[in-house]
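queue> pop job 88
queue> type: inverse folding (structure -> sequence)
queue> payload:
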């Protein structure tokens, strides 16, 4: 009677691929044989440009110095070499070349410009691209930036920033920013 009450043996489950194993197998198949007919391409991963800088204390100090008209400099490691990022209060430079500069509009506001030639020169450098978008995102009064980065090129609205175009010789006016330069100088005297 005790023999009749035993539970039946469990069925062996078929081992299924884990999602990681499936992705590894797909990568191998794509590398060896290419995509199959009708197979959907993987969606490109969306990159949050500027996120690596925004919360960093050195970048925040750079933006504070830029708004106040002070000097600040720090270095980052990119492509195996140290690259300086600095401000003198009116320019933000990357590797010694000016990316942004401001010009006085009135007592409390400045116009912010993007140097077109430098932006085009550094558009293949990830650190510079992230810096450009971090500056734009940290200046909330500019609103949503019209500057876009796709296919390793900057574009502003519908125009792609390029070298050698005569109609694109001028730098880009990005908008007005509030500054504390006058307020700080008045307090000192």
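queue> result:
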């Amino acid at each position: 009677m005790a023999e009749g009450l035993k539970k039946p043996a469990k069925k062996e489950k078929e081992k299924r691929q884990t999602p990681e194993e499936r992705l590894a197998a797909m990568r191998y198949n794509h590398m060896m044989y290419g995509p199959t007919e009708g197979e959907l391409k993987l969606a490109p991963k969306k990159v949050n440009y500027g996120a690596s800088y925004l919360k960093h204390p050195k970048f925040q100090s750079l933006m504070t110095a830029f708004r106040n008209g002070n000097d600040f400099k720090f270095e980052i490691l990119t492509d195996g070499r140290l690259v300086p990022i600095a401000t003198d209060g009116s320019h933000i430079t990357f590797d010694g070349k000016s990316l942004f500069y401001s010009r006085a509009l009135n007592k409390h506001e400045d116009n912010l410009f993007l140097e077109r030639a430098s932006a085009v020169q550094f558009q293949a450098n990830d650190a510079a691209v992230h810096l450009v978008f971090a500056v734009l995102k940290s200046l909330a009064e500019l609103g949503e930036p019209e500057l876009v980065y796709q296919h390793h090129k900057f574009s502003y609205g519908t125009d792609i920033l390029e070298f050698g175009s005569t109609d694109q010789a001028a730098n880009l006016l990005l908008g007005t920013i509030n500054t504390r330069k006058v307020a700080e100088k008045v307090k000192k005297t």
